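Notes from the pairing session

We agreed to fold both candidates in a single pass and log them together. This is the raw record for the first candidate, unedited. Please don't reformat it; downstream parsing expects exactly this layout.

Candidate A
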Amino acid sequence: MKLICPICNDSLEGEGENELSLNLQEHFATRHGYTGMCDLRGGTGANACQASESGSLADLSYGERRIWEGHGLERPVQPGEDVMESVRCPLCGTVVFGHAFDDLSYNLAKHLNYEHEVKVSVLGKG
């Protein structure tokens, strides 16, 4: 999976929601100096994030996750079908969805802008 940082437009990658989310959070800390982020690793206390809506499937690679999700649904995912990708907000842990990396990047930028008042770069949506 791939994502563009909504602040600096650097490209980030990860196998599945969890890895991509942790890579994004590390990028926010090292490149942009964010320190008040939730604990995406499942910690407890003041900085604990809400549980991911993807549950244990979030640890699987993108392809494996699609297979498991496809078998759990009444209608299996067909080859080439447009499926949702997800990443967790590095600040609050909310799951953000998009159909492709540009949708996912735009939706994350929109979430950060509206929910956390983070100044984001314009990603050319529309």
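Candidate B (folded immediately after A)
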Amino acid sequence: MQTGMYSPAEVTSNLSDTGDTKATRPALDLWLLGALAGAYISIAGLVSHVIGHDIANYLGVGVARFISGSVFTLGLALVVLAGAELFTGNCLIIISVLDKRVSWRAMFRNWIIIWLANGVGSLLVVGLALATNIGSLNGGAVGEYAAGVAAGKLALPFGVVFARAIFANWLVCLAVWLASSAKDVAGKIAGMYLPIMGFVATNMEHVIANMFSIPYGLAVAGNLNAQTFAQFALNNLLPATLGNIVGGALLVGAMHWYLFSPNRAKAK
């Protein structure tokens, strides 16, 4: 008998309970928890920039991506263990909707508030990163790396961002799923590590991570203005949000609900 983890059916049931709680939280709580999650993901992004900015020069691109992805696990660990609210993870509220415990309206209310609040937290970290001049580390190489990351993301076609975003939140929600299957802190961190490392290492598009990396990179390069922000919103935030919903809500939430939910027969 496995005592260190929950079964897939138990994880599905537990996530249904969690989704019910998330969907009924007061708006102020959602704003605060969402801002914290956006900040946590952004802090992980900043740390990943600092640690990974020049590794490829010495160890190659593959090792650099692996290390950057490993470091980025910090973000989801802070979100999950500290109880914050992340839009991409909250795509799993679809399980509660399919169980007919939460209305579609309540789910969309949560998604909209958390998406906006995540953005507020992300921009807070952008401001702090600029105020502390972290981009000047290593003779300004960290800032140059951040600017390159932002430029590369903005150059991607809409369809590529959408496809990469599906992959990204497929992995992020699997990370949440695996973390939810563990009963202790070490197991939760171990469960979320590989999927998060994988999505960052393969350079996929996570809308909340981009809420930090693109504005920060543009600001460091001196290119943050109304025109570039509009380009960011239309060419990256929009397809990344839509793709993240497909990857998280459909490929993880709905798929696992269909396969494992004890309530599926009742919900018909």
